[in-house]
Amino acid sequence: MVVPEYRNQKIGTMIMNKLLEKINEIKKSNPDLRVYLGASKGKEGFYRKFGFVDRLEADLGSGMILKK
Length: 68
Prior knowledge:
The protein is α+β, with helices and mostly antiparallel strands. The protein has one domain (4-66). 35% of the residues lie in helices and 16% in strands. A 3-stranded antiparallel beta sheet has the order 1-3-2. Strand 2 and strand 3 form a beta hairpin. The radius of gyration is 13 Å and the shape is flat.
């Protein structure tokens, strides 16, 4: 999670784009790779923009999986 005073500067988006570049590179040699993350409650929409979908869990926020 990006520290509050640095939010809304596209830092999280830049981080996610770099991570997804690396994930896609790894998937070339390991196409069965699965990527999971724990989204902070209320922040799931941010991760949906990158292809993650909800896997609902308790009150902690969604566990999410990359479906690309």
